[in-house]
Amino acid sequence: MDIKIKHLGKAYGEQQILKDFSCLFPEGKTTCIRGKSGSGKTTLLRLLLGLESPDTGEIEGMEGKKIAAVFQEDRLCENLSAASNIRMVCREPITDQQLEEAYKAVALTHIWQKPVRELSGGMRRRVSVLRALLAESDCVVMDEPLKGLDEDTKERTIKYILEKTTRKTLIFVTHEEKEERLLKADGIIEVL
Ligand SMILES: Nc1ncnc2c1ncn2[C@@H]1O[C@H](COP(=O)(O)OP(=O)(O)OP(=O)(O)O)[C@@H](O)[C@H]1O
Known about the structure:
By secondary structure, the protein is α/β, with parallel strands linked by helices. The chain has helices at residues 41-48, 82-87, 96-105, 121-134, 151-164, 177-182, and strands spanning 3-12, 15-25, 30-34, 56-60, 67-70, 139-143, 169-173, 187-190. The longest helix is centred in the middle third of the chain and has 14 residues, at 121-134. Bound molecules: adenosine-5'-triphosphate. Adenosine-5'-triphosphate binds at residues 12, 17, 35, 37-43. Residues 3-191 form the ABC transporter domain. This is ATP-binding cassette domain-containing protein.
């Protein structure tokens, strides 16, 4: 089922963030969200995920959907290894070999059993991306997941994102046109 945003309005105090905002996220397709800093992209995702309530309007098509998300912050369990962070969200057991393949796909090496607090920022980003991709879901929502990664790592990670989200609804916030292109986005939504 497509996700339909209908005439959404959201204000924080006097500040109107979204006003009569409507858009569509087609099922099984990739949609990128762009817009200048502070325009309300994260707010839109938070409304979509039910972490905020809209003042007006409604969201259709989220009922019963399994959603996996990457937030702007990594939101990892700091004292656990990458493997434990990933395994804790996977309903089906995930083998060491599957994990190794996933690490390799996004150029994550030498992370061993270290707690994620000891990993670099870019490594942590990729662990949170893998966690969202390996969890069971119908829809994956990502808020600037590749921020801070070098170009080569970005390209590899996007390739893996595409591989793991075939037939899923992917909603991806980015400031980068190149990322939209590499993702072969079916649609681009601008938040003004
Ligand atoms: N909980 C909150 N309380 C008050 N104001 C908020 C809250 N969350 C967001 N805002 C404000 O809403 C506006 C939109 O924020 P939001 O994070 O949605 O923007 P964004 O488009 O995702 O920006 P960026 O590209 O910088 O991540 C900002 O002015 C922000 O300060």
